[in-house]
Specification:
Layout (H helix, E strand, L loop, with lengths): L1 H5 L7 H9 L20 E4 L2 E3 L2 H10 L7 E5 L5 H9 L2 E6 L2 H13 L5 E5 L12 E6 L8 H5 L1 E11 L7 E9 L2 E10 L17
Parallel strand pairs: 3-4, 3-6, 4-5, 6-7
Antiparallel strand pairs: 1-2, 7-8, 8-9
The structure holds S-adenosyl-L-homocysteine (SAH).
S-adenosyl-L-homocysteine binds next to strand 2, helix 4 and strand 4.
């Protein structure tokens, strides 16, 4: 998988490549699809959700430039695979999942694989995890029409936030990287991706598009 799908597409971060070589991706996939665990696609994980394509996991992890990072926040635990990749690289991973059964299943898989540095919370990741902020990196693995302000607020100076930005159920979204500087944020557009949308329980509280 790493040699065929990830290195040829230009991912160079050795820690990301090593993590993805080490992690048994089939353990994060429902048994019905496990034959496809190392294929070049996203796969269904139940509840209408998907585990991302391996290359997209690599691309987002690489863009976060995780060397030296201590605390990382993920929104959208899903299967737990992305959290495992992060946990191989940084000391503390915090991850939030809104669908309770997915969080429970991910927690079980990650415990079975021996991860002790991943903290899972059930809830709306839009609000981030203020008690643990600031984070050196934040990764949102569901798409949103705008970047959630609480996540920008919870990013450390020098930290990076990556998320797919675009309309729900549109074909493609833009992968956007924010870097927090001493006086603001730098925004870079990376590529086009396809993600499931970020679920909002109370749409009326959404601030306007940024
Ligand atoms: N990172 C996952 C894939 C995530 S798919 C993996 O490695 O498998 C997107 C996930 O985001 C889904 O599990 C979905 O339930 C979750 N999600 C959607 N809206 C959310 C929200 N507001 N807060 C937290 N999680 C959310």
């Amino acid at each position: 998988m790493v040699n065929d799908q990830i290195i040829p597409r230009g991912i160079k971060d050795q820690a990301v490549l090593a993590a993805m070589r080490r992690i048994p991706r089939h353990r994060f996939i429902p048994a019905f699809y496990s034959a496809f665990a190392y294929y070049d696609n996203p796969l269904p994980i139940g509840h209408g959700q998907t585990i991302s394509q391996p290359f997209v996991v690599a691309l987002m992890s690489d863009a976060l430039a995780l060397q030296g990072a201590k605390k990382v926040l993920e929104i959208g635990t899903g299967s737990g695979y992305q959290a495992a990749v992060l946990a191989e690289i940084v000391p503390h991973v915090f991850t939030i999942e809104i669908v309770e059964p997915l969080a429970t299943e991910a927690a079980r898989t990650l415990a079975e694989l021996g991860y002790r540095n991943i903290h899972i919370r059930v809830g709306d990741g839009y609000q981030g995890w203020p008690e643990e902020a600031p984070f050196d990196a934040i990764i949102v693995t569901a798409s949103s029409e705008h970047v959630p302000q609480p996540l920008l607020d919870q990013l450390a100076v020098g930290g990076r936030l990556i998320l797919p930005v675009g309309k729900a159920f549109q074909e493609l979204q833009e992968l956007v990287l924010y870097r927090r500087t001493t006086d603001g944020y730098e925004r870079t557009r990376l590529s086009l991706v396809r993600f499931v949308p970020l679920i909002r329980k109370d749409q009326s509280s959404q601030p306007g598009e940024r």
